[in-house]
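In the lab's daily routine, each protein ends up as an entry in a very long ledger. A line of letters takes care of the sequence, but it says nothing directly about the fold. The fold becomes a row of whole numbers, each drawn from a learned catalogue of backbone shapes. The protein below has been through that process, and both of its lines are reproduced in full:
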Amino acid sequence: MTDTLVPAQSLLSPADDAGSPKRLFIKTYGCQMNVYDSERMADVLRPLGYATTDTAEGADFVILNTCHIREKAAEKVYSELGKLREMKEDRAASGRGMTIAVAGCVAQAEGEEIMRRQPAVDLVVGPQAYHQLPELLTRTARARGERIGADFAPNDKFDALPTQRGGTSVAAFLTVQEGCDKFCTFCVVPYTRGAEWSRPVAAVLAEARELAARGVREVTLLGQNVNAYDGEGADGKPSSLARLVYALADIPGLDRIRYTTSHPNDMSDDLIAAHGELPQLMPYLHLPVQTGSDRLLRLMNRKHGRQKYFDLIDRIREARPDIALSGDFIVGFPGETDRDFEDTMDLVRRVRYASAFSFLYSPRPGTPAATMGAQVPDAVARPRLHALQALLLEQQAAFNAAQGGKTFEVLFEKKGRERRQAIGRSPYLQSVHMEDADHLIGQIVPVFIASGEQNSLTGQLPGHHHQSGSRPQAESRRAASDRTP
């Protein structure tokens, strides 16, 4: 007997049929792309009567959207599943059900292992198969059919996603590229997300227009190697990320564009030029290098050296002198010596980052680095990590402090903890807090920066203060209007 899909209403309880939606809780681990994927999972489940909730307690459907970059992250998933199993048993005892799904990269890499270790899991869905959730859910509701969906077909996924997205934030993520062909020896992404694949320009623009129509003022373009974007353009030929950004900048209401994560080898001339010419492209760039050691860069299969990275930074700063740089660093990669680590510290001192992420190396099963000799003991690696983080925090604090006394445009996104406080983002992605500003949420306004702290800025309406931090948006737009993309 062949499977047939159950109509959406058959998944709903009598209470749901009366108008009360089922509750969906999604816990997201890891990268910004997972945040985007979680939002889209909520979108595909909304037509089945699922409304999102902020806690797993009382949820009818719980999804853990996982990350496989680090070992501890995967173990946290199993720990969370143990807690969910108890909740599921408690709900079953009172005659209520709970469906548990594991999605994302851990699901892709360890699907069968997840089902074996935690029988309470009903569904395992890889990052390229979450558009199948409604179908898998209906089959699970009938206690039949497949429970694992983990293929590599990103075009199928995006074609199946709803054109309209939920949520009301003024800033949104927008995936334009997935997968990776770089095969860094420490990384599982090529195995969990598949080969590099870019969405067609028309599909990206259509989603961006829908976001802008809902009031989104800022989009962050996402991809494992986002600056390797080569989606099909209107002429049938591959586009570059720079050309895509210029097309996005023509969408009315879309005032800010960011992108992450980039690889140094894909930082093209036209993308560097766009940072100097396009005002909607924010002066912030996340450009991971991982280590400052040429020897380790070769072992990591990064395919670039430290000098190429330095030269690239010089060119980017020449195009946009006020750009803020962010990066990623791995400490304790197999074979790392004191000299290798000092090369990393030297690179950080020379580049000077506005922010950065740093981690202890974590061996991931199936990656070449996991089988390398000379694994660095924790007693050696951890003090190095602390020294690096101290330097990075010092640079971040200095960058934030240097914004004091400047005025630049801030996009206010949400309410703060204090009454009438609002929180926004500077052009450099810093968090900006301002009192008596909740009426400004959703707006981009000039803000005088009274002070810069370790992790945020304190702003005021300019009043008599007016020193320009970044180029005024209106003026820079006029300067860019003479260039034809």
